Input
Amino acid sequence: MFAYIIRRILATIPVMVVVALFVFALLHLSPGDPAAIIAGDTATADDIARIRQKLGLDQPIYIQFATWVWALLHGDLGISIFANLPVSKLIAQRIEPTVTLTISTLVVAVLAAIPMGVVAAWKAGSWIDRVVMVFAVLGFSVPVFVLAYLLIYVFAISTDLLPVQGYVTISGGLWPFLSHLVMPTLALGMVFAALIARMTRASMLDVLAQDYIRTAQAKGLANDKVLIGHALKNAAVPIVTIIGIGVASLISGVVVTETVFAIPGLGRLTVDAILRRDYPIIQGIILVFSAAYVLVNLLVDLSYTFLDPRIRY
Amino acid sequence: MTVAPTDLAAFAAPSVVKRGVRDTIRRHPTIILGATLLGLMALMAIFAPYLGTVDPQALSPIRRLRWPSAQYWFGTDMLGRDIYSRTIYGGRVSLTVGISVALLSISLGLLIGLVTGFSRWADAIMMRIMDGLMSIPAVLIAIALMALTRASMENVIFAITVAEVPRVTRLVRGVVLTLRELPFVEAAHASGTGFFRILWRHILPNTLPPLLVQGTFVAASAMIVEAILSFLGAGTPPNVPSWGNIMAEGRSLFQVAYYIVLIPGTFLSTTVLAINLLGDGLRDALDPRLARRM
Output
């Protein structure tokens, strides 16, 4: 098992190399002069020359790549064109709201979706099952920002129950912190919860058809013990896998959610960077988000050995 | 030459075929529901100029921010443009992007997947690249590509296609790897059938059902990504009335004129729902094994 863990950790290296290559190549594969594109339509020749020099675009490409990777390995993501600050510093400043929102969404979605999936599978074909399946297909279909605005309309404009937008850190009080987090969490969590509920139901249906479930029921074990202790435990691997894969939808969604709710996180940083064509920031954010995604899925893979001791590598 | 299966089908009683179709529909009502909804949206987009619309770009500063009424069915925006006309025309953008991305990424993914499924070294290299690309969330790939190019619908389609291709490639490769080992392919090979003929007659047809299902999900996802890009200001140019653009323009006015955001949002959700229903139904009908699982 130890060898498996080492092998799995090493396997993330080629993935991150490809991500880094993609992020680097983007600037050079694009048609035209990257410096001119970044500078925008109103730039003078001086501006373009300044940006070219600042990004090192006047160097040969392999030197650019080597310099860039070397800096990257030292945690240096380059300098923002617009703010003239290190990208790593800008990201560090903005990461807290994004991490808070992502984790709260992850927790709420998992806690809501797994019971839904379990009950839907247990009562397969019943009205509860249908409600869960309708919820799942709606969750896939209503885009995160449409849902976000619907929530704002219901909870902030029609009824005034929750603040329309903004973000308060936990040091600003527990209720202000939570009340600003409710709607973003619900909006962001919908797709994710739909994904998990559907996979939980499917995986549970497979397990509930097994002989050992009938044995457990036949020996008079209570339903909840059969469902949780026997069925869910054995259905866990695909569920955990889909949670890991679904984190990609959380990352995509967080950029949009932060824009709708004016949360000063990485998503806002991304959108500001798009509008200003501040390319080093966009590159840095893609690297950070992708690294987080790869890390989550590494943890998921490693968790298999604990969830299912039969898995031997 | 062998008798083509279509010739045989012509001999079968037509009622049998019809009943087969009817049974499929009865067992999978979501196909009909999804296809009908999607068909309505498509008709709406195609016949946009004849549906009582005005020029979606026509400004009318005196009639700014009018609420939905008999004259302005969906109201007007802050520049006095008619939201009804903009929403109807916006359907063209969403559907064009969705269908184009689905066709392009399926074709590209099929090509790459077929090649990598049969060539060990191409497989090793391509799959590392695809793994890397798949670990970048789709919206971020599209944002990165859009930030470097000028806003246009072609560039949006290209950017979303790049983000979707790795998943399709993985799917095709998986199917090819399984089929390659099956007895009927081995038999074809043993009886001297050429490589390209095996590919064309035995492998390709078997990749089509899962690709059809995948195609619907790619189209749904592409429409959402297009709307997200436009909403964030990295999508179709602002002079094109796309649902994402209309919502982006209504963003700052949401508290006073929420209809500007919610109406195109409803159209977008309904269209995506229609495609998802169609895709779920097709998957259930084409792959009973998967249907039981999901």
Notes: The mean pLDDT of chain A is 86.
